[in-house]
TrEMBL record:
A Pfam family that the UniProt record links to this protein: FAD_binding_3
Protein name: 4-hydroxybenzoate 3-monooxygenase
EC category name: oxidoreductase
Ranges in a coiled coil: none
All residue ranges annotated as the FAD-binding domain in the record: 2-343
Recorded superkingdom: Bacteria
One of the GO biological process terms: benzoate catabolic process
Record-listed E.C. numbers: 1.14.13.2
Molecular-function annotations in GO: 4-hydroxybenzoate 3-monooxygenase activity; FAD binding
Keywords of this entry: NAD, Oxidoreductase
């Protein structure tokens, strides 16, 4: 089998790249380890930057997003029992974010790819990457017990943090930067109306909480929990009681509870692998970097990588130029590190760090007080939250 670009992974990064290239007549094959249903069953991100919405439009996949996505022009910080609104639009000349679940982004991209007849091999086993240090890379995999070889010009490693792509790179060729946090997020999804029209990020001595949503009838909530927490330790009631205790009185009063559709624990880490290119192999999305979800950057960063990589590949096939491909790693990493900084800063400010002591908590409260009382500080949060310009 032969194609122009072999894409490993049918998450948002792989599917978006495939769609953007397909629309320019560039052949791709996506190899995905799991089934389509399994991929759609993962509950993850919920907030899209304008740049990500624009990329979905470029991919011809923004119809449902425009119809069902919820534009948000503000976000709330809650601490000391008081809520403070950050006027995202007012502080950024009208920029907004759109609340639209990653599951829906993935579904829209999957449906577009199927409608275009572009090949995706689901449940592709034992994927391995070969000869990507030269111009004739090969991807090998097993499908229905039969070994296959996919010859291509380029490999896009979009297979996430635990994928095979980054792990195929010789260790001496990679530099890893990472920080693990001493806590995780316990997430709950429920068909109940959100506690507020906008998101609420909560700093509380018992731990961080986040009130988000997927629609005006489906809510997504998170609680800071120990990194090794077991979901089984949390009944729905225990979750709702803990969330209510961390909210300001008005929100606590208004909170609507109901049975969990999904509950899961996600570890938090900051991680970047450099560089992002190895001959004809390019890393994009979680395969290259991880951010703690506090800044709502994970999915948006993946989209940013795909924007740069798709433009570079389109330039190569259209103009026989390698300028974009040669610049990809440096260009993408410049944006990645700014999002890593913002995500680390939001996480450091809003979470309870057991070992930080009284001084650390005072600094966090001073940071929050400064943030909500200084236009300059609020504007800095706002321009990062809506997404820095490409
Ligand atoms: P993904 O991990 O989404 O997709 C990679 C794909 O590659 C998967 O489908 C996987 O099955 C496949 N794959 C892996 N190994 C393979 C192999 N060997 N062969 C073939 N296929 C292989 N971001 C936010 O902004 N907000 C959040 O609230 C948030 N919550 C998250 C919660 C969890 C539990 C996790 C893990 C991440 C969360 N993220 C969040 C980040 C997340 O949204 C990612 O940024 C986003 O999924 C990145 O997309 P991809 O790079 O496509 O990686
Ligand atoms: C979500 O809705 O899942 C969500 C929103 C904002 C975040 C993290 C997660 O920062």
């Amino acid at each position: 089998m032969r194609t122009q670009v072999a894409i490993i992974g049918a998450g948002p990064a792989g599917l978006l790249l495939g769609q953007l290239l397909h629309r320019q007549g560039i052949e791709t094959v996506i190899l995905e380890r799991r089934s389509a249903d399994y991929v759609l069953g993962r509950i993850r991100a919920g907030v899209l930057e304008r740049g990500t919405v624009e990329l979905m439009a470029r991919a011809g996949c923004d119809q449902r997003l425009r119809a069902e996505g919820l534009p948000h022009s503000g976000v709330n910080l809650c601490f000391g029992g008081q809520r403070h609104r950050i006027d995202l639009a007012g502080l950024t000349g009208g920029e907004q974010v759109t609340v639209y679940g990653q599951t829906e982004v993935t579904r829209d991209l999957m449906e577009a790819r199927a409608a275009a007849g572009a090949p995706t091999v689901y449940e592709a086993g034992d994927v391995s990457l070969h000869d990507f240090d030269g111009p004739k890379p090969v991807v090998r995999y097993v499908k229905d017990g039969v070994a296959q070889s996919l010859h291509c010009d380029f490999i896009a490693g979009c297979d996430g943090f635990h994928g095979v792509s980054r792990q195929s790179v010789p260790e001496r060729a990679l530099e890893i930067f990472e920080r693990a946090y001493p806590f995780g997020w316990l997430g709950l999804l429920a068909d109940v109306p959100p506690v507020d029209d906008e998101l609420i990020y909560v700093y509380h001595e018992d731990g961080f909480a986040l009130c988000s949503m997927r629609s005006m009838t489906r809510s997504r909530y998170y609680l800071q929990c120990p990194a090794d927490e077991k979901v089984g330790n949390w009944s729905d009631q225990r979750f709702w009681d803990a969330l209510r205790s961390r909210l300001d009185p008005e929100a606590a009063e208004r909170l609507t509870t109901g049975p969990a559709l999904e509950k899961s624990v996600a570890p938090l880490r900051s991680f970047v692998a450099e560089p992002l290119r190895f001959g004809s192999l390019f890393l994009a999305g979680d395969a290259a970097h991880i951010v703690p979800p506090t800044g709502a950057k994970g999915l948006n960063l993946a989209a940013g990588d795909v924007r740069y990589l798709s433009e570079a590949l389109i330039e190569f096939y259209g103009e026989s130029s390698t300028a974009g491909l040669d610049a990809y790693s440096t260009k993408a990493l410049a944006r990645i590190w700014k999002a890593e900084r913002f995500s680390w800063w939001m996480t450091s400010m809003l979470h309870h760090f057991p070992e930080q002591g009284g001084f650390g908590r005072k600094i966090q409260l001073a940071e929050l007080e400064y943030l909500v009382s200084s236009r300059a500080a609020s504007a800095s949060l706002a321009e990062n939250y809506v997404g820095l310009p490409y």
